[in-house]
Amino acid sequence: TPDEVDAFLRRNPAAAVFKVGNCHKTQETFIHIERHLESRDDLPLGIIRVLEWRPASNHVARLTGIVHESPQLILFRNGQAVFDRDNWDITDEAVREGLARIDHEAVGMSE
């Protein structure tokens, strides 16, 4: 729900949201996300199943200004979207780039 999205982002200074649909791209792109996030206890992953939870997906789009796509990965720092990719642009290289960006945001905040 939209309230659950807000609570998730409030609870987690850094967070990832993966919006998924029914197409074959979801499974293939999730492999890249899982590979990079499974060791990141500091970066929880919230998954929105768009077909069942369209209001939550629409809420994320309103919060970020990022047009909804599926599949879609959005990385957040302090409730603000700092990186997004969708469809076939969700690759190992792209996820690495996003994680570098979110880590850079964290370093900038601690200075």
Describe this structure in words.
With 111 residues, this protein is an alpha+beta fold. 49% of the residues lie in helices and 23% in strands. It has helices spanning 2-11, 24-37, 54-64, 92-110; strands spanning 14-20, 45-49, 72-77, 80-86. The protein has a 4-stranded mixed sheet with strand order 2-1-3-4, sandwiched between helices. The longest helix is centred in the last third of the chain and has 19 residues, at 92-110. The protein is globular and about 30 Å long.
Label this structure with key terms.
111 residues, alpha+beta, four-stranded mixed sheet
Give the count of helical stretches: 4
Beta-strand content bin: 15-25%
Uncertain spans? none
Categorize the overall geometry: globular
Tell me the major beta sheet.
4 strands, mixed
The side-by-side strand order for the widest beta sheet comes to 2-1-3-4
- Rounded mean pLDDT is 90
Instruction: Report, as a whole number of angstroms, the end-to-end distance.
Output: 35 Å
Rg is 13 Å
* Structural classification: alpha+beta
The helix fraction, in percent, is 40-55%
Spell the H/E element sequence.
HEHEHEEH
Quantity of strands, as a count: 4
